[in-house]
Design goal:
mainly alpha; 88 residues; 2 strands
């Protein structure tokens, strides 16, 4: 992994941990698979930290640019799927 996570320095330590957990599951969805429910739970927490849609898009774009992984597509698949696990 030669990239960094998009982090806002105004977030609390716990918020940073929660956002990193979210991005870690995005990575796992591409590299192996993740439980759908776990992904939706961490995404809901991410949305508590980043409620603005425009800010979410900006953060997702930064992560996609640096990692090549698309959080948007993973979350979309998790929302639309009935599968127990998500694999990209």
């Amino acid at each position: 992994m030669n990239y960094s996570y998009p982090i806002d320095e105004t977030w609390s330590k716990q918020e940073i941990i929660d956002v990193v957990n979210f991005f870690t599951l995005i990575e796992k969805a591409y590299e192996s698979q993740v439980p759908r429910e776990d992904l939706l739970i961490v995404y809901r927490r991410f949305k508590e930290i980043v409620p603005s849609k425009s800010e979410e898009k900006k953060i997702f774009a930064e992560f996609t640019k640096s990692s090549g992984y698309s959080p948007y597509h993973v979350v979309k698949k998790a929302r639309e799927s009935e599968e127990k696990t998500i694999k990209m």
